[in-house]
Design goal:
301 residues, alpha+beta, five-stranded mixed beta sheet, four-stranded mixed beta sheet, Arc Repressor Mutant, subunit A, 2 domains, Trna Endonuclease, Chain: A, domain 1, 8 helices
Amino acid sequence: MELDIFRFLRIRKKLEIEDENNFAYLKKGWLGEKQFDELLEGLPNECLILNNLLLKVNNTLFQIDSLLMTQKKINIFEIKNNEGDYFFKNDCLHMITGKEIKNPLNQITRSESLFRQLLHELRFNITVESQVIFINPEFYLYEAPVKAPFVFHAQLGRFIKNLESIADSEFSQGHLRLAEKLASLHIMKNPYSRLPAYNYGELKKGIIGKCGCTFMEVVNQNYLICPRCGELEHKESAVLRSVREFSSLFPDRKVTVNGVMEWCGVISKKRIRQILFKNFQLIKMGKASYYIYPGEEKEKD
C-alpha cells in the first residue's frame, strides 16, 4: 500500500528529494521480495507461505518479509536487495566507504525472538529458523561471519533445493490453522510508514495509465490511451482503477458521482454514474448519495 501511494502521488505532485529516495528504497526492497517469492513458488505444495506479515506481541511490532511453514519447522526470511561492496566488522555491517548501515542480523534475530514469543502465546510448538537472503547478484560482503544465517545469491540454488527436501511431507490441519491465525493477526496499516504529506486540492486530477507513465487521454467513446507509451485501456477499467486509487489516498472521503467525475477529469458524468451503478452498491441519501464496494459495511454519518 505504501508503494502504491507513492506511485499515485509521483504523477499528481512533485515529491521532495527525501520522499523520492524513500520511494526508490521501498521499490527496491519490494522487487527483492518479489524475486524471492518467485523462487519459493517452485517448492512442493506440502508447505505454506505467508508474505509481508506485520505482527504485534507484547505491544511490540515486528515484520516478517517471508515465512515458510512445513511439517517440520518454520523458516522466516529477511530479504535484502542491497548492491555493491560491504564488509562486516565488530558485529556491524558497513558500506565499503566505511558508513555503517542497519545490521540485518540484528533485524532477523529480533524478529525471530518476537515470533517465538507469539508462537508461545498461540500455544504452538515448532522449530523456528531464520535467514537473511541477499538476493542481489551485485552484492558482495567481505569478512562475512561463517556461521551467520546469511544466504547469498550464489547460494540460492542449493538453498532452495534444501528447502524442497524438508517440504516433502504434508502439513497438518494444525499448521493450516496457525497460518490462518497469523494471517488474521496481520496489521494492515503500518503506523511507522513514512508517506509524503499531501492534500486533495494540490493533486493534479485525471486518470493515470496502468503503466504509471502519465495521464491518459480519450481515444474514442470506449477507450483511453497513455500518450507516452501508447497503452490502451477501456474506460470502465480505467475508472474502476482510479476509484481504487482515490479510496487509497482518501479513505475518509465518500465515493460519489461528482467526486469521481472531478477526480477522473476526462469521463462524462453519465458514464461515471453507469460505471459506479454497475460495480458498486448505491447508498441512497438524496443529494448526499454515495457508493460503497459490494459487501462493504455502510459508513456512519
